[in-house]
Amino acid sequence: MKKIVIVILVLAGSFFAGDSAKAQQLKIGVFDLDIMVQAMPGYRAVDSMVQIFQRDSLAAEYNVFQTEYHRLDSTFKADSAAKKSKALLDYTSNQRQQMALNLVYWQQYEQRRVQDKTGQLAQPLYIQVVNAYKKVLDQKKYNLILKPNTYEMGTPVENVFAAVAKELKIQLPAELGGGQEEAQSGGGATPPSTKPSNGAKPPVKKP
């Protein structure tokens, strides 16, 4: 991905190299919607509710799967010893196999449920960030928006996180360039790292 971005930058530089006035018009910004949402003050509450969901609802569901698997396994063995009908044994075996698959692929299932829950709870924050982001794009007229870690160091990019945070009237974490806005001109604060200060785990599934 980084190689693709470098090629884009090289081509863009070549295109504008013959005209310094046009070259100055090339505006590149760095931004990521998920990371910005995780930097919102309200995301701490979302993260806490998701942890409760994992601890209570998902843990209980996992226990149900385990209990049901052991019950079906015992039933199948008892029915086999009692020489029950093949149809009944096949039904119980299929049910047991389904419970076994639920346990084997539990991690993927849990991750999907967590992403869905996070997207649901964070939807109001996404709406706020998207609206602010659109306003910034209308004002700044960027030619290209890159995600963090998709460009080489030294690339002249503007920190769009700072502009969006200003539009939202929130304090940007230092990891995203917070506290440097006054020292920089034109929104060109130091490009951010990829992790917000609250320690959230990006990315989350967008609603």
Overall description:
The protein has 207 residues and is mainly α. The protein has one domain (2-176). 61% of the residues lie in helices and 4% in strands. Strands 2-1-3 form a 3-stranded parallel beta sheet. Helix 4 (43-81) runs antiparallel to helix 6 (106-140) and helix 6 (106-140) crosses helix 7 (160-168). The longest helix has 39 residues, at 43-81. Mean pLDDT is 81; it is low at 2-20, 181-188 and 196-207.
Could you write a compact summary of the structure shown?
With 207 residues, the chain is mostly helical.
Secondary structure: elements and pairs:
Blueprint: H1 2-16, H2 20-23, E1 28-30, H3 33-38, H4 43-81, H5 86-104, H6 106-140, E2 144-146, E3 158-159, H7 160-168
Parallel strand pairs: 1-2, 1-3
Helix pairs in contact: 4-5, 4-6, 6-7
Give the helix proportion (percent range).
55-70%
H/E series: HHEHHHHEEH
Count the beta strands: 3
Major β-sheet strand ordering: 2-1-3
Computed over alpha carbons, the radius of gyration is: 25 Å
Bin the strand percentage: under 5%
Any idea what the shape is? elongated
Terminus-to-terminus distance = 25 Å
Largest sheet: 3 strands, parallel
Average pLDDT for all residues: 81
Q: How would you classify the helix and strand content by structural class?
A: mainly alpha
- What is the count of helical runs? 7
Supply the key terms.
207 residues; mainly alpha; 3-stranded parallel sheet; 7 helices; 3 strands; elongated; disordered N terminus; disordered C terminus
